Amino acid sequence: MNITLLTLTFVAVNLDFFIMLLFLLKKYPLSQVLLGYLLGNLILMILSFMAGKLLENFLPEWLLGILGIIPIYLAFKDDDDDNETVTKKSPLLAVLITYLSVCAGCNLSIFLPVLLGESLTTFLQTLIYTSALTVLIVFLLKLIERNHLIQSLINRFGEQLMKICYILIGLYVLFDSGFLTHIYQLLFH
């Protein structure tokens, strides 16, 4: 297990979501945000490991880039009453769904190659380490979120900034994965 590589990968993959976590920490209880984010990380790490073990020779990395459409869709989707009811009943589920929809493509496409060839024992150590990083990040962001300037900015511009983040994250995933380049080459070459 390469701690430096894991730390850099974790930070790089989740950097965009750290901003989203500030909004989520403002809206939901700390424990619910922490558990939703932790579950999301664990799910995506396990999926990355399993996908690497089962499909490493069959799926090209660029194909995962299509998941970048999900956050863009969420940015333009109007919040309806059904969604509001679900998120009020289960903040943990709201955080989990937000994380999975925003970060799945990036996490899967970046962690999959990092985890290729790892043994189950090393992978379990990786899960423990990234879980500790997840907890640390949430507590650090909670301290930042309590800052009065940050609170006023989130209250005033939070929804708009979250939508902008969704769009930027989606575009990043589409470009970074090579999905758009691949589609362009298929259509025009």
What does this structure look like?
The chain is an all-alpha fold. The chain has one domain. Helix content is 84%, strand content 0%. The protein contains 8 helices and no strands. Helix 1 crosses helix 7, helix 2 packs antiparallel against helix 6 and helix 5 packs across helix 7. The longest helix is centred in the C-terminal third of the chain and has 29 residues. About 4% of the residues have low confidence. It holds the Pfam family Cad.
Number of helices, counting only DSSP H or I runs of 4 residues or more: 8
Gap between N and C termini: 42 Å
Seen as an oligomer or otherwise, the chain set is single chain
> Helix share of residues?
over 70%
> Pairing-aware structural class of the strands and helices?
mainly alpha
Order of helices and strands: HHHHHHHH
Task: Determine Rg (CA atoms, Å).
Answer: 17 Å
Major β-sheet profile: none
What's the topology here?
Blueprint lengths: L2 H25 L2 H26 L13 H8 L4 H9 L1 H25 L4 H26 L2 H29 L2 H10 L1
Question: In a few lines, what is going on in this structure?
Answer:
By secondary structure, the chain is mainly alpha-helical. It is 84% helix and 0% strand.
